[in-house]
Design a protein that fits this description.
Number of strands: 0
Number of domains: 1
Distance between the termini: 84 Å
Structural class: mainly alpha
Shape: rod-shaped
Region (Disordered): 69-96
Largest sheet: none
Oligomer: single chain
Radius of gyration: 33 Å
Biased composition (Basic and acidic residues): 69-79
Biased composition (Low complexity): 80-90
């Protein structure tokens, strides 16, 4: 199951638990149980926020790495081409 599907199911579960909790609270006699059920909604919310923060950090790392590669590539493009110096042969070693 993909990570996005897990998050979507978590949100859906939280909504269902919230609706169930609201129905129980209206009855009045199961208030402590409703509070317990709704507390699980907070757990789901925290898990979603944690996943969002992880995704944000991953995107920031990716953007930083891309910028570094871009700057390295630009630095390589700006380097002047180095041509080898011509070899100089002393005159006394020339054979005539």
């Amino acid at each position: 199951m993909g990570e996005n599907n897990k998050v979507l199911l978590g949100v859906l579960g939280g909504v269902l638990l919230g609706a169930f909790g609201a129905a129980v609270v209206k009855r009045g006699n199961l208030r402590p149980h409703a509070a317990k059920v709704l507390s699980y909604g907070y757990d789901i919310k925290d898990a979603i926020i944690e996943q969002a923060e992880t995704l944000k950090e991953t995107c920031e790392d990716l953007a930083a790495e891309a910028k570094e590669k871009y700057e390295d590539r630009k630095a390589e493009e700006q380097k002047p081409a180095v041509t080898p110096a011509p070899t100089v042969v002393p005159e006394d070693s020339k054979k005539e």
